[in-house]
Amino acid sequence: MNNLMNNEEKIIKRLRHSAISYLARYEVSINQFEQTMKRKLSNFQDHLSEQEKMKMIDIIKREMISAKFIDDKRFAEIRVRSMRRQGSSLRLIYAKLKEKGLSNDVIQFAIDVVDEGHENAEMIAALRFIKKKNIGIYYKNKKIGNETNEYTLRDKWFGALSRKGFSLEIIRKVINIKDIVNADLLLEDSI
């Protein structure tokens, strides 16, 4: 029995070391952490039952949460801030963070923190996206030859923005902006 406990302690120690090494490199959600630890534990201890694996992972997970190495709210806020800078819509943010195993409450809290003070944060995100992709008012080739070419481009731009999760209302506003100075001022105010 003592040998079994000693072996379990060795596994937990090895898993703890692996967890700390992993968390030193990445900010992750609790769900991501659990999945990674399952994979790591399976790599170096395959003879354990699922219940034993979950018990060990739970021990390490509690340690990492109490040490504040894992925090879903912090993770969500970092990801939302990054995605907003890249020009991501609310729909896309929700979809990506749900994949990471975060609850709607945590996601909404992070969005509220990041978008605080910006009543038109969705519009700013759409502007960042079109600037990054050089579409709409930021389209580099300003010489749009014939009418069909202009409508083809607008269709492509609509498609790009809708795939990013923006609403039709936001897409129309962004595509119909004609003054690049005002668009840039709106972006500068958001920083």
Short description:
With 191 residues, the chain is mainly α.
Question: Could you explain how this protein is built, in words?
Answer:
The structure is a single chain. This protein is mainly alpha-helical and 191 residues long. The protein has 3 domains: 2-66; 72-115; 121-189, no CATH class. It contains 10 helices and no strands. The longest helix has 24 residues, at 2-25. The radius of gyration is 23 Å and the shape is elongated. The mean pLDDT is 87.
Mean pLDDT: 87
Beta-strand portion reads under 5%
Low-confidence regions: none
Query: Portion of residues in helices?
Result: over 70%
Tally of contiguous helical segments? 10
User: Based on CA inertia axes, which overall geometry fits?
Assistant: elongated
Output the structural class.
Answer: mainly alpha
Q: Could you give the order of the helices and strands? A: HHHHHHHHHH
What's the N-to-C terminus distance? 61 Å
| Beta strand count | 0
Instruction: Characterize the main sheet.
Output: none
> What would you report as the Rg, rounded to the nearest angstrom?
23 Å
Number of domains: 3
Provide tags for this entry.
191 residues, mainly alpha, 10 helices, 0% strand
